[in-house]
Amino acid sequence: MMQDVRNAAQSRKKTPSAAAKHDGTSAAQFQQYQSAVQLLQQGKFERALAAFEKLHPVAPIELKERCAMYIATCQRQLERPNLTFASREEHYDYAVAQLNNGYYEEAREHFATILADDPDADFALYGLALLNAITGQAQDCLANLARAIELNPKIRLQARVDNDFQTMVDDPRFTELLYPEIP
Questions:
Q1: Is the CB of residue 147 less than 8 Å from the CB of residue 135?
Q2: 128-151 burial: b if 16+ Cβ within 10 Å, else e
Q3: Does 88-178 carry CATH code 2.60.40.760?
Q4: pLDDT tens, 130-162?
Q5: What interhelical angle do 88-100 and 104-117 show, nearest 10?
Q6: pTM surpassing 0.90?
């Protein structure tokens, strides 16, 4: 019996060192994963793709699915054609399509591009306010919508009936923005 206790104690002593070795490998792989994600966030899609493809076959199970998703994301970004638009309105329509398809970051980039060219593009501010409402960024939504209304008061009427602002209807600041007191 005493021998069984010693064997159990020895096996417990071996387990942490084996676990530490395994954790060391996982820690290194997790570091590679974080580096690849950082490349992706920086828009370095070719380098990120190479890093994810290298990591994917040896990744721990908890990272394997994420690597596959990011590989697909990088490939999609690299295959994406350079888009040209005949007008700001056409560009806006594309941004709204991205928004409606759930590609929020791409929609945000397109709204930002329109606003970089024309900071007073009320329709782009409105689209950005919609995006902010959908993604739960209430403060940004209010700021963008207020600026859009300032530039074009008719937007207030449009916002009153737009279901995409549904998440904002309980916010008193939103109500005040859409239904200001008449002096």
A1: no
A2: bbbbbbbbebeeebbebbbbbbee
A3: no
A4: 999 999 999 999 999 999 999 999 999 999 999
A5: 160
A6: no
